[in-house]
Amino acid sequence: MRIAMIGSGYVGLVSGTCLADFGHQVVCVDKDPAKIEALNAGRMPIYEPGLDALVAENVQQGRLSFTTELKPAVAAADAVFIAVGTPSRRGDGFADLSFVFAAAREIAEAVDGFTVVVTKSTVPVGTGDEVERIIREIRPDAEVSVASNPEFLREGAAIGDFKRPDRIVVGAEDARAEEVLREIYRPLFLNQAPILVTGRRTAELTKYAANAFLATKITFINEIADLCEQVGADVQQVARGIGLDNRIGAKFLHAGPGYGGSCFPKDTLALVKTAQDAGTPVRLVETVVAVNDQRKRAMARKVVLACGGSVRGKTIAVLGLTFKPNTDDMRDAPALSIITGLQDAGAQVRAYDPEGMEAAKPLLRDVAYARDAYDCAEGADALVIVTEWNAFRALDLARLAQVMAGRVLVDLRNVYDHASVQRHGFHYVSIGRPGSG
Ligand code: NAD
Hints:
Layout: E1 2-6, H1 10-21, E2 25-29, H2 33-40, H3 51-60, E3 64-67, H4 70-75, E4 79-82, H5 98-110, E5 115-119, H6 127-138, E6 144-148, H7 158-163, E7 168-171, H8 175-189, E8 195-198, H9 200-231, H10 235-243, H11 264-277, H12 283-306, E9 315-319, H13 334-344, E10 348-352, H14 357-360, E11 367-369, H15 373-377, E12 382-385, H16 397-403, E13 408-411, H17 418-422, E14 427-429
Parallel strand pairs: 1-2, 1-4, 2-3, 4-5, 5-6, 7-8, 9-10, 9-12, 10-11, 12-13, 13-14
Helix pairs in contact: 1-3, 5-6, 9-11, 9-12, 11-12, 12-13
The chain binds nicotinamide-adenine-dinucleotide.
GO molecular function: NAD binding; UDP-glucose 6-dehydrogenase activity
Binding site for substrate: 152-155, 207, 252-256, 260, 324
Domain UDP-glucose/GDP-mannose dehydrogenase C-terminal: 317-418
């Protein structure tokens, strides 16, 4: 199959590269010339483990190329995927579909011969109808079928997720589109990946329902963690105790500073807005959004409390800025609210992240960036672990105790256990475990 991938960000670049690796002929398009220039020079515009090698191999095999020129890529394609961003619209929280519709218009002008246009971006239910309308209006003659194929990969584990997905969801309104998408994903059937073919609207909504459910699960365990702190229970054991029940499942039951990232915050909000417009508010998700928003800022208060009630004039070392490990993505990372909250309370913040510091710099003011965890901790009154990068899972606590001015360790990811940290003289605060608050 000849495939054009419109948008070469976290999703487009990984999906395009993996599809090339399946043996398809893929052109990744992006309107950002810096991204395409970097890719053509063999440099990755994002950090994603294993991506550089997979890109290099497929480029070398002649199956993968990068361009800013949408027209020829689309004209030659059997299938065109739209993988552009759908951020929250400023002001009202609806999904901003301007990039999707702009891509649809450009695609309409370029299509040649029967082409399946597939929306991979996360888009509100009904967007496929609008994409189809736009294309038909501009090119009534075009032989186009519009399908939905939401993406479920996780940053940091994106290649494995794309190649071994739990399921592939295809929303198609006709047999031709279904056939093309089945052919594209055929290499995955060897891995027994189930393909679920639904109507287009169902596929669109499935993506939001999945993200809202996962966000709810995280928020649920976070509230249970708060309760644990008040009543002297241990959230990690509660999570294990419920997670071993197959009906519940153990994943997404790690209490922490609240969910962030480029998907959950905007997708839960967009679902709330869609449901309100449809006259069937999803009140549970509305509450999840509100609880999670408050939680991030509450984490700053937790640090202040751990420091004895005031951080004015104190230096706080923050380890981990990205919303999760193994990515450089800073979009809606809890670290942003936590650091701002600490600064508002009068603290000086020093931070270190293995991959996220470049992306963090334009989003945070007056933060000093360190070379590594120990450099970050040097002279600090308190150390806060915000993201559980591997590099922070086995810190030399004796060395930390030596270089720090204070002995406060706030572990917002429950990486350490009480006894071992206290042995080094630290006041240790974690989430939802005895002595956490
Ligand atoms: P991103 O911002 O990393 O990438 C989007 C890219 O599209 C950018 O490089 C931008 O320059 C490019 N672009 C925009 N308009 C274009 C146009 N007309 N022509 C060519 N290129 C254009 O975004 P992302 O994180 O890859 O997310 C893309 C979509 O996938 C979103 O809808 C998101 O919700 C969804 N999604 C993301 C993830 C994730 O983990 N990031 C997972 C599943 C789904």
